[in-house]
Amino acid sequence: MTAPRVLVIACGALARELLAITELNGLVNVTVECLPASLHNRPKEIPELVRQRIHRARGKDDMLQDDMVPGTNSSTGASPPGDNQLLDAGTEPAAGTFDQILIGYADCGTGGLLDKVCAEENVEMLAGAHCYQFFATAPRFDELQDHALGSFYLTDFLARNWERLIWDGMGIAKHPELRDMYFGNYTRCVYLEQTDDPKARAAAHECADRLGLELHIEHTGYGELESTMVDFTRKATA
Predict the structure, then answer these.
(1) Domain check: are 98 and 187 in the same one?
(2) CA gap 84, 195 in Å, rounded
């Protein structure tokens, strides 16, 4: 019996983690396809781009724009893309037809619009408000939130790219006064650490220092992202 083909349309900030999860769990029938991680700063664009990728995967090319995001293939088995590539570019559209589609986003600041798209297209998406919640797991994230109000969160990807996404991306590099306007009410920086990466940890320390925040490191691994991926794939197979 041939295993059903599963497509995961995800945020580029999760590409490394999703590829690692597919490899660690032997999910050879899973293809990972990512939209640009830079959409973190433009979440209102996410729902329609996800819809277009769903249509493309279903062969509805006539409904797509001609200028979809360029990039390189990140299907199962490929080497993880570099962070610079993930930040600015998505992946090439997955070829062929798929039996199941999973959306590798939580709400991610779309105000419920992504959930609406997924309901209309009859596809499943990750549960939760954002990636911080499913990396930490929902119960632990609630504990972190309750422990200290005003926590600013980093993941491995955001730690490695904080300068481009936060310092430069939010205009603080050119206008230093914006730092306190954006982060003056935060009390600490919480680094949700997926892997033991000394460079990412050092970058998290630098980010917290630059923002004037105390750093708390919470090793999460892949959290609910891994269990959701595995469960979804097994359900598709069953």
Answers:
(1) no
(2) 19
Q: What domain count does the chain have?
A: 2
pLDDT digits (tens, 9 = 90+) for 22-74: 999 999 999 999 999 888 778 999 999 999 999 988 887 544 443 333 333 33
User: For 161-186, what is each residue's pLDDT tens digit?
Assistant: 999 889 998 999 999 999 999 999 99
1 falls within a domain: no
DSSP letter for each residue of the chain: -PPPPEEEEEEGGGHHHHHHHHHHTT-TTEEEEEE-GGGGG-GGGHHHHHHHHHHHHTT-GGGS-TTPPPB----TTSPPPPHHHHHH-B-PPPPS--SEEEEE---TTSTTHHHHHHHHHT-EE--SSSHHHHHH-HHHHHHHHHHSSSEEEE-HHHHHTHIIIIIITTTTTT-TTHHHHHHTT--EEEEEESS--HHHHHHHHHHHHHHT-EEEEEE-TTHHHHHHHHHHHHHHH-
Q: Which structural domain range is residue 117 located in?
A: 6-129+223-237
Distance CA 152, CA 147 (A): 13
Region of 109 please: left (phi>0), alpha (psi -120 to 50) or beta: left
